């Protein structure tokens, strides 16, 4: 008897973006970066992250969750879909709303939460991680990618009925403690979130997308 053919898992990437007017506050605390430069960098990180995600093979759709409607218009030109955040000021609640929207718009797809501060994100590496996500979800309820410094999380995925992200300080240990399986350990560009200017310096050395390249060149002048 042949075994039934299972549909391969389909992935919809959900990217939460805090409006750049407020986001990435730790950048401004650093080396006296002024508020305009902080805002431009926060916007550039999100644009590069979303543009790379929309170019990634195996991504069925990218859903950006943000209340910044000017940024939303640019994200749509990359082929991303956008929904409002509803100003929850709670990243995990925002992502749960995003996952519910994935169920409505792309029934059967797995929501994959991806942070928007990955300016060096490479489509080839995200594609590799998504293959690990699909494999991991064959046996585990949830999977996550640990950030480059080891304590945080840059990606979390689970089927919508089990989707329970625990982002925030120390989230990698929380995700692992809840039984999520770590994936993507070798995917440097998926792990390299930028929280401060030291992170940005390291990302610039490794290579970033065009928006962050422009914004950081303006910073150097
Ligand atoms: N839509 C939405 N996105 C959020 C919210 N909080 C955080 N994010 C996004 O979640 C990701 C990770 O957030 P953090 O690294 O904490 O970024 P941040 O809050 O902008 O940075 P800091 O102000 O320095 O803490 C980034 O993509 C943020 O834009 C929120 O309340 N709503
Ligand atoms: C969202 C959070 O990012 P951090 O603020 O720790 O960089 C996390 O890693 O869960």
From TrEMBL:
Enzyme Commission number(s) from the entry:
2.7.7.68
UniProt entry tagged with the keyword Nucleotidyltransferase: yes
Question: Membrane spanning segments where?
Answer: none
Q: List, in alphabetical order, the Gene Ontology terms for molecular function in this entry.
A: GTP binding; phospholactate guanylyltransferase activity
Which UniProt keywords are present, listed alphabetically?
A: GTP-binding, Nucleotide-binding, Nucleotidyltransferase, Transferase
- UniProt xrefs under InterPro entries: CofC, Nucleotide-diphossugar_trans
Question: A Pfam family this protein belongs to?
Answer: CofC
Q: What is this protein called?
A: 2-phospho-L-lactate guanylyltransferase
| Domain of life (superkingdom) | Bacteria
Among SUPFAM superfamilies, the record links this protein to: Nucleotide-diphospho-sugar transferases
Look up keyword Nucleotide-binding and say if it applies: yes
Task: State the encoding gene.
Answer: cofC
């Amino acid at each position: 008897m042949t075994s039934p053919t299972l549909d391969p898992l389909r992935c919809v990437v959900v990217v939460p973006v805090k409006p750049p007017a407020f986001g990435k506050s730790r950048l401004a605390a650093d080396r006296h970066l002024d508020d305009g430069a902080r805002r431009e960098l926060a916007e550039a990180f999100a644009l590069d992250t979303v543009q790379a995600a929309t170019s990634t093979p195996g991504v069925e759709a990218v859903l950006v969750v943000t209340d910044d409607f000017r940024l939303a218009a640019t994200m749509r030109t990359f082929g991303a879909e956008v929904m409002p955040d509803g100003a929850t000021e709670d990243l995990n609640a925002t992502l749960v709303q995003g996952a519910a929207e994935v169920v409505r718009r792309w029934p059967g797809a797995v929501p994959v939460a991806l942070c928007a501060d990955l300016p060096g994100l490479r489509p080839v590496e995200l594609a590799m991680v998504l293959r690990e996500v699909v494999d991991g979800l064959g046996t585990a309820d949830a999977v996550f990618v640990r950030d480059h410094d080891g304590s945080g999380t840059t990606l979390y995925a689970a089927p919508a009925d089990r989707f329970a992200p625990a982002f925030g300080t120390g989230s990698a240990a929380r995700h692992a403690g809840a039984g999520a399986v770590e994936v993507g350990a070798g995917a440097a560009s998926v792990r390299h979130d930028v929280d401060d200017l030291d992170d940005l310096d390291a990302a610039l050395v490794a290579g970033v997308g065009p928006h962050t390249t422009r914004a950081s060149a303006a910073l150097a002048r």
